[in-house]
Amino acid sequence: MPEIDLKGVIDRFQGLSGMTTPIVNPTPPPVRGGEMESIGINWQSVINPSDFYYRLVLSFLYVLGSITVIVLIYGGILYLSSGGDVEKAERGKKTIIGAIIGLIVIAAAYAGYNFMIGALTGGLT
C-alpha cells in the first residue's frame, strides 16, 4: 500500500480553497496528560493541590450559602403562613434570624478565606 503524504494533501487543499491558516497543526502538542489533555483539561490545574483545596472550600461555602437561603425562605413561609398562631410566627422569626446569622457567618468566612489565601500566596484569587 503506498504511503500518502498527508501534509502535501493538506497544502494542496488549502491552496485550492484560498485559505491562509493551516487546517491541521503539523506538529501535534506533546502528550503529557494522555487522555485528559486531549479533551482539553488543563493538567496543571488538576494536579495543583492548592488550587484544588481553594476550589473545594469555596464550593463548600457556596453550598452552605445556598442551603442558608433555602432555610431563610422556609422561615419566611412559616412566618407568613402562621395565620395568627403566635407559636408558628415565633418559630418563623427564629428561623429567619438564624438564617441571617448563618449568611453573615458564611460571608465572613468567604471574605476571611479569600483574604488569607491572597495574603499567603500573593494573590491566588
Descriptive overview:
The protein has 2 domains: 6-38, no CATH class; 43-121. It is mainly alpha-helical and 125 residues long. 71% of the residues lie in helices and 0% in strands.
Brief digest:
The chain has 125 residues and is mostly helical. The chain has helices at 6-17, 35-38, 43-47, 49-80, 86-121. The chain is elongated.
Supply database-style keywords.
5 helices, 2 domains, mainly alpha
Number of structurally distinct domains? 2
Unreliable runs: none
**Average pLDDT score:** 76
Rg to the nearest angstrom? 28 Å
First-to-last CA distance: 56 Å
DSSP helical segment count: 5
List the helices and strands and how they pair.
Elements: H1 6-17, H2 35-38, H3 43-47, H4 49-80, H5 86-121
